[in-house]
Design brief:
Two copies of one chain form a homodimer.
Chain A (H helix, E strand, L loop, with lengths): L1 E9 L16 H13 L6 E2 L8 E11 L8 H6 L6 E9 L11 E10 L12 E3 L5 H11 L1 E4 L14 E14 L5 E10 L6 H13 L6 H9 L14 E7 L5
Helix pairs in contact in A: 3-4
């Protein structure tokens, strides 16, 4: 029996998120089906990040155990023949038998993309959140920096999460921008956050909070207040899923 | 009667190109329907660039004549309510009654995007051409530069084009690259071409030729040979449509 790790990229538009469900199409469901077709074994998949409906990934991670003789690094290409074109395994490799993608130290990096233009840009509609307002990117960056470090992120977690300990460490949080020179002009604004674990909807609530600050509807201090009070009301709304992308997970430098 | 110019952005995936057709969904067809619904007039649309099936735009241009009293600059927002979300008018404005978007001097700028990665990247599948090979971007850039200037582009025009004069001027042709740090790594390679007019499939044949050169299948000299002989066989294949985007059209600085 060998444990195989997959790096998985997908376009989340068509899917009801990562986690397998009875009556809905999911990434984990498609991966499981494809693995069973390829290996003719009753494979069970364990994913690192159970991304929401509509959220994308360049490098989510999953593992499974197999007795099949196929060389581990060949599984990626073979598996892609059994997957729809909006899911592509980027790499496959053997890992230690006790490697678990959730019960181990790792750093996850997410990016949230905002299209700040007067009119929506059709090619970005599934990959960015369109905001009509001008955004003060410098203020957003200052607010992002305040999230760095070890904090209780209760204010940045959707109600109903069963997790008790809401202390997490954000290694880096930054905001960058790029001009859109064509059409009617505007900017792409990207929020990038790396950390050792994220609560339910945490990155989308961070994005919603930074957008409020960028629009001038909330002050920089609202971030400090949210961290101190742990009150969900002190943070901003949950930004929509299509702007979110899981870039990758680093298991080597986990903390 | 006033002539109104529209800047139109669209995602070409769902469409059989720009030009209106009886039994197929097209950008021009949707625009015409939306304008007739909004203005309750028998509007005819004239487009600047009749992009192919699957090709995208940030700033294509169209004009139409109307007797409606709606302020010209308000048409964009009103029209978007009648359009599907993969077409968005970016701006509307009144122009001279004799302004014709094809029979006038203008500079069009196109971008062709290549995703040079070992495995396809799902979120880019409709917006870039996936090439497994490593590409020599410097050679591609040198080849692009050779296209600049006034040339007979017969070798870069699909057979069956009714156009007789195939001399065009390319103002600028350049190739840029950006690393993809996540998933399995790789690069995004972008070919940007500006000119005073383009033949049928010209940018896609330029892209196909530069990709052959980047892969080492063709030499730099093949571009010179293609320009000199005018032989379609001397240039590369027509690269697929999804990598192509019409960025915009400049009527002010036309030549």
């Amino acid at each position: 029996m060998r444990r195989i790790r997959l790096i998985v990229a997908y376009d989340g538009v068509r899917y009801h998120g990562w986690q397998i469900q009875e009556n809905a199409i999911t990434i984990e469901g498609e991966l499981t089906r494809a693995l069973r077709e390829l290996l003719r074994e009753d494979v069970e998949v364990i994913g690192a990040s159970r991304t929401d409906s509509g959220v994308h990934a360049l490098g989510n991670v999953a593992v499974f155990d197999t007795d099949a003789r196929i060389p581990p690094e060949k599984i990626a290409i073979a598996l892609n023949h059994h997957l729809p074109e909006d899911i592509r395994v980027q790499r496959s490799e053997e890992v230690e038998a006790d490697f678990h993608p959730r019960h181990c130290n790792s750093i996850k990096t997410y990016e949230y993309t905002i299209c700040a233009t007067k009119m929506a840009v059709p090619v970005l509609r599934n990959y960015a959140y369109h905001v009509y307002h001008e955004l003060n990117v410098e203020k957003m960056r200052d607010a992002a920096r305040k999230l760095e470090g070890i904090h209780d992120f209760s204010a940045f977690c959707s109600a109903g999460s069963p997790v008790e300990n809401k202390v997490r460490r954000i290694i880096a949080a930054d905001v960058s921008e790029e001009p859109i020179e064509w059409g009617n002009g505007g900017r792409l604004v990207r929020i990038r956050v790396s950390g050792n674990g994220f609560l339910y909807n945490m990155v989308r609530i961070i994005a919603g909070t930074l957008i409020e600050i960028g629009m001038g509807r909330q002050s920089l201090e609202s971030v400090e207040r949210a961290l101190e009070t742990g009150s969900r009301q002190a943070a901003g709304p949950t930004a929509p899923p299509q702007g979110l992308m899981l870039l990758g997970i680093d298991f080597q430098n986990g903390i």
